[in-house]
Amino acid sequence: MVSTKSSKTRCSHSQTSLIQTPMTKFNAIAVAQRVLKIETDALMTLSDNLGEEFTNIVTLLHALKGRTILAGVGKSGHVARKIAATLASTGTTSLFVHPTEASHGDMGMIHAEDAVIALSRSGETKELADMIGYCKRFGVPLIAMTCKPNSTLGRSADHVLLLPDMPEACSITGAPTTSTTLQIALGDALAVALLEARGFTSKDFKTFHPGGALGAQLSCVSDLMHTGAHMPLINIDTRMDIALEVMSEKGFGCVGIVDSHGQFIGIITDGDIRRNLDKDLIHTNVKTIMTPQSKTITPDALAAQALHLMTAQAPKVMQIFVVENNKPVGILHMHDLLRAGIA
Q1: Residues 6+ apart with CB under 8 A from 302
Q2: Residue 64: which of 23, 111, 27, 30 has the closest Cα?
């Protein structure tokens, strides 16, 4: 029986040898560049060899009445979870089912109207056997994502998303690196192809991402704008003393000008007033002070687009009127964008 002391001593020596591995001849950047070069070459090979089968699979999933089920074990399982999440967030109903759990009852989650995408580099993952058999028994379309079309998975599948059989970037251990990068990239390509085939929009995307920075960036102008009586609006025939009262009351630092038909024709801001202090402002008509053809935006535009319009080009503005059919329907202030986490 080895004593506690000797065991601790051996452990200490082992840890010390790892920590003291000499780095003088080790070039971390060169290793990283080699890995990235291997994986980039593999991605280019994948792209160059996409064929009609990819289109067939997109067509199948686009017409699917049920869900797209992702399955995989180990690193392929982690990637399968990621692909399922990406598909779900871009309009394709999907979920991940672990093959082992499927063999112990979760197979009931897979229905006849679904399709299964099974990920396995070798195509010989034993844990997939029951799921393969279930798909064949109940006529569930099976799509293999593998490097080996003649493997058990490849031969059993109705369709194959073929990955190029390229070397793993970790040549010492053969750990999944290149293959998992290819799986992720092909999953992304599948998700985006389905997204565009469905006509999925940024508004649809926001429905699945209501929170956080991404949700904020996908907010529409109509979500943030002030409407109705909150808008600082006056008629073209109004005098500046009334305009100043409206500006002060509404608190946006501006007033919008409309013609007799309610069409938006210009704006007066704090800056316009400062530039015209030498005039008898109180008795001046707003048409002599206003800035015509000012920046406007539509209510269905993304709030991020409003931010770009307000800040990207001179003159930069703190507020912008929202118009529909050239009639003002709201006003958006920079502070609204700040509060929403967009600016």
Answers
A1: 202, 217, 218, 219, 220, 221
A2: 111
Fold for 29-200, please state it.
Answer: Rossmann fold (3.40.50)
∠ CA 289-292-295 to the nearest 5 degrees? 125
DSSP per-residue string spanning 136-176: HHHT--EEEEES-TTSHHHHH-SEEEEPP-PPPS-TTT--S
Contact yes or no for 310/316 (Cβ under 8 A): yes
Asked if 64 and 91 touch (Cβ cutoff 8 Å), the reply is no
Q: Tell me the pLDDT band of 272, cut-offs 50, 70 and 90.
A: confident
For residues 251 and 236, give the distance between their C-alpha atoms in angstroms, rounded to a whole number.
Answer: 20
pLDDT score recorded for residue 103: 93
Q: Which DSSP state fits 226?
A: B
Please give the model's pTM, rounded to 2 decimal places: 0.62
**C-alpha torsion 169→193→61→97, nearest 10:** 40
Residues of the chain with CATH 3.40.50.10490: 29-200
Question: Domain 221-339: which CATH class?
Answer: alpha beta
Alpha carbon 159 to chain centroid distance? 28
Band of pLDDT at residue 280, cut at 50, 70 and 90: confident
Residue 269 is inside which H or E element, if any?
strand 264-269
Q: Which amino acid is at 124?
A: E
